[in-house]
Amino acid sequence: MSKYIIEGGNRLEGIIEVQGAKNAVLPIFAACVLTDEEIRISNVPDLADVVSMENILKELGVTIKKNGRERILQAKDMISDEIPSELAKELRSSVFLLGSVLGRMKKATVAYPGGCDIGLRPIDIHIKGLRDMNVVVEEKSGYLYCDGSKMIGQEVCLDYPSVGATENVMLAAVLSTGETVICNAAREPEIIDLQRFLTAMGAKVRGAGTSRIFIEGVAKLHGCDFTVMPDRICMGTWVLATALCGGETVLKGGRKSEIHSLCCKLDKSSCHIKEENGIIVIKAEQGGRNPERVTTQPYPGFPTDLQAQFCAYAALSRGTCVVTETIFENRFRHVPELQKMGADITVEGRVAVIRGMPYLTGAEVTARDLRGGAALMLAGLAAQGKTVVCDIKHIDRGYEHPEETLKNVGAKIIRV
Ligand code: EPZ
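Above: the input record for the complex with EPZ. Below: its predicted structure, written as tokens.
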């Protein structure tokens, strides 16, 4: 079990290249099965979740050539319409392969993706959306058997702006007959990137980024070249790392507009963030004042994927902050670990009350999930003394060699 050993208390100074977005590249990889032509994708981050998705695609018959951060994928001959259950268990977001396999094969089978570290992760909204498009979905002994032979464009109203459900319906609709309108669609930037990709393949999709997405089905899609957007959650993570440790970092490849809700919550008197010529410059001193409250919301609200990292920041800022997690039911698993470091946090249900402390003390802590692990890494950077973060395989799912990124800006962190 790999660990990070971190010597805290160092300012961060230097340049960080923002990696490609995990939550954009996963649905884009799923979309590659929608054509039998070759697709070249650049800026693919080197992540465990990407490897998991590649393994699933290969089982379906997709060939994948890797050259650094570039992939060449081709679904020339699909050999199966069944998403392999053992592999799908490793990557629950493989559920949006349902839409793309249905789009290509007009039928699909997938094992029910289980819950994960942060919640039950039901897929009822996905299933309802596909059924609205006349897909026959049969749930039997833990599997979903989908018959899309009569799939047609429809108005699909999502009960909740689910990111994955929005993507699944988009992927099923692009090769369906007629027009599909997704109402109450998720508005995340990754949805816009998926629309950009599908359009590059010849699909007729518009409205991504708003709550209504229009898809005009076409008969065939073609290959394309595409570059994945930067990862806004990594960007927010590095902004918080700089605000926690103090220093001056430059983020290359990010877009400040995509972390606007985070920037609004940081104390402007101690953390200056400005964007110039496509780079983001952060100048920060430790000990900023906490905002009174942070509440996670669907985009453009405060992202749930930055909640844990923000808790680490709030634990070391002045004043009290009330953090409310409205998206997932079990996303405070980093709190007991931060408490081992001296954080003053009390959790009642989905609300954490965080009273900023003058310092945190290094300790041995354990990552319980991806973003909670990132939060512990950040807390260790700013804590006094040595912190050991155990079970960092969770962090490898979403961050590309973070210890290298942080070492390059002055952090004392090693992987053992
Ligand atoms: C995506 O997950 C992201 N993952 C998550 O990032 C992110 O936290 C989440 O969107 C919210 O922004 C990927 O894109 C691969 P949802 P997704 O469907 O699509 C409930 C990370 O750390 N729901 O918008 O699964 C669900 O339980 C990961 O990078 C239903 O009830 O999120 C949750 O409470 C974590 N029924 C809420 O909606 C459904 O059918 C939001 O889920 C679907 C979802």
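Notes for the reader.
The pocket of EPZ is lined by residues 22-23, 26, 93, 119, 121-126, 160, 162-165, 186, 304-305, 327-328, 370-371, 398 (CB under 6 Å).
Residues 3-19+231-415 form a domain with the UDP-n-acetylglucosamine1-carboxyvinyl-transferase; Chain fold (CATH 3.65.10.10).
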